[in-house]
Predict the 3D structure of the following.
Amino acid sequence: MLDIINLDKTFVLDGQESSKKHAIDHLSLRIEEGDFITIIGSNGSGKSTLLNLIAGSIEPDEGQILLDNENIVTLKNHRRSRFIGRVFQDPMLGTIGDMMVEENMFLANHRGKNTGLAWGLKKKQREAFRNMLEPLGLGLETRLGERMKNLSGGQRQSITLTMATMNSPRLLLLDEHTAALDPETAKIVMQITDDIVKKAHLTTIMVTHNMRDAIRYGNRLIMMADGKIIFDARDEEKAQLTVEELIKKFSEKTGDVLPDTVILNK
Amino acid sequence: MKVKRLLLAALAATSMVAVTACDGDVVQIGILKFVNIAPLNDAEDGFVSALDAAGVNYKLTKKDANAEGALVASSSLTLVGECDLVLGIATPSASGLISARETKGSDVPIFFTAVTDPEFSGLMTDDQAPDNNVTGTSDMNPVREQVELFTKLGLEIDKIGMIYCSNETNSVIQKDLAQAAADEFDLDFVYETFTETNQVAAAMDTLIEAGIDGLYTPTDSTLVSAYSTVKAKADAANLPIIAGEEACLELGAVATLSINYFDLGRITGEMAVEFLSGKSISELPVRRVEDMPLILHVDNAEGIGLTFPAELLAEADEVIDN
Amino acid sequence: MRIVYNIFTNSLNLGLIYALLGIGVYIAYRVLDIADLGAEGVFPLGGAITILMIVLGVPPALAVFLAFIAGGIMGLLTGVLHTKLKIPSLLAGIITMVICTPLSQLLNGAANHAINPERFDTLGEFVGSVSIDPKTNTLFTFFRGIFKGWTIPEEWGIIVTSLLAVAMIVGLLYWFFGTELGITIRATGKNKVMSRAQGINTDSRVILGLVISNAIVAMSGSLFSQFMVTSNSTFGQGTIVIGLASILLGEAVFFFKKSNFAVSLLGVVVGTFAYQLVINLAMRVLEDNGYLKLVQAVLFILILCIPLFKKNYANLKKKMKARRNANA
């Protein structure tokens, strides 16, 4: 469904030709419809860059990204967002703090549609929004008229998730979306994520620092280092992985040791 | 709330000021000056001196609009609402007062000074027959006679240039007059305009490249503030500058037939006194300064290698030689 | 007593005329979060077009509408310069402002020429200012006539006309920013990245927002020029300061940042009136207008500090409450 072919991206730091970072190194990846892929790797392995390339915030130097056999590399990011949903790590980024919950949801709902002079927030829409927020179990369906910035990080991320999946996107990108939350809230949001993805059979790519989550959720696990995929396990093989094995695999493949931050983040 | 209290306090203060100002025999006179520069200040002083000389019992309210339209508007409204007679110094002040008077439905007489052409600026339809309760004095400088000076310097002058700020209506009027005078005296004429003082240097360069032999600078307050640039460029090309006003002689011009702004203001004051003594505005047509002395600046002339011919020196009313 | 009356009516008069300026600046600076300096050129341009049209005999309402359109075109210019040519918004606004000045002066020259074609050969010339007969038919004439008939001072006719204009614009804006298009413009101003992630073409929204902002500023300039029966290319000087001061004063006094859009707009209108009031009072108390700039500066500082004072006051209250509970 999503075919990444020979993707390559180098960043030039501070405009100096001498300090370059080869962020994505001729990476190829095939994602099937309905895959729920977790991606792990140390900082600088290229995980976020990969998501940015898929979403269209940056352009690759080489390579193709085929969505159902259509190359979307040349499509601008605001166009791609019509069929790609995205949740960022920073709860502030996914929503507009100064605007109300229902206005934010309106924006997500409106994604991909033509904008006209019709009144934005009609009664029917409000009803629909309430029905979307109720299953989250956080009581947010009564807070439609509140400013987003009055909600907690976990509540914001939950709404962002709802917004990202509202119009049945063909692809859902989750960029360490629970990393900024406390462990309790992170667990709740991860559970909500799993529910939403399973219910709608969404093709999902989730970047995470948490190896336990990476193993526990999804049907496929990918490990990245130096812009390359060094390990790819699915279904049975993935279900039987342990954190210790992953750490060992990493050292084997890269000759490096995973940094403490990743190991301790269980 | 803090703001409310501040406002109330200010209101109280103002009321107290207002009470002390209430006196039946005193003539309330308001003066709105467009901007704080020498010629306008001189005119203001001259006006007041005429009132003093005639022994008028007046109370003055002076406003300075800082060259801002918003302040012209609010100052005009304030003055016409509360004065028996108002003076607008420079065209924007005068037109501001006229419109404010219409707004307030007042019939206060409006005097103006330092306006070059009141008809051109829309202040009145016939400056010799005032019919809208507006009159004053014009600072129309003798452009024709000033341009004529180029032919009396004893130099080979075929082409003259003029520079002015296009924001100033008075300057546009002088440009047309200068063009006509140049035609009369068989001189080629080119001009450059600018809107901001940082454009003056470039405008001067264009004029010099066009091959002018002399430069005419009109009465233009924006130009005056950038005169050092004009002088520097003119010196580098050895160009004599004939100015529209006396203040520019100090700044580098070699000659002018000057208008004394203090005199201009004084004449305006005298007209106001005549009005207060019983004459109606319709009987007070616009006046000009009669006396326009020829002033020569020998030092500036020497600076560009020019010696004034003897005939010109004899004609001069004043020669500056340090 | 006459003085108090004058202070009140003069502030109301100019306040309502400048209210549209404040609203236009508000849309650029607060809604779009763009520092658009073009307003300083668009304001007098609106006036220049209006005076020319009135001299040519065009009905005043139509003249105002044309000024509105012209402002919109200037906003389009600024928007395109900024979004498509990637010129920083500050510079884009300045470019527009610089273009407006000679344009205004050419229009003034044409107006002057139209007043008296034989005497004033100024077609195609740059003329700084042009004044028309104060009795000329302007947008204000209708209500001025009505109030005169009721023997009420004519200035109330001006106030009522401006009030209607402001009410109309506020109403239109309230409706507009609640539509799909309007919400997406507001979103763009708050968070461009997020908006693009929601498939919004932020470039076109910025341009549309600037078009609206500048059109309203030009309309304010149109009203001002009809009030002064003069078009002067320097009338734009200081208008950004007036706009910002009005917005800040409105926000400080009414704390409307927390409320909905309609209240925000009304806050700007009231802020404009309050600002004119302060300037008027300061002008009467001060001997020299030169000190007026100082007063403005001090006012700015006070306004900007009010949120700080509020916070400190709130913290103080909290501390005292805690102390009371601890002692209990």
User: Anything to note?
Assistant: Chains B and A do not touch (no CB pair under 8 Å).
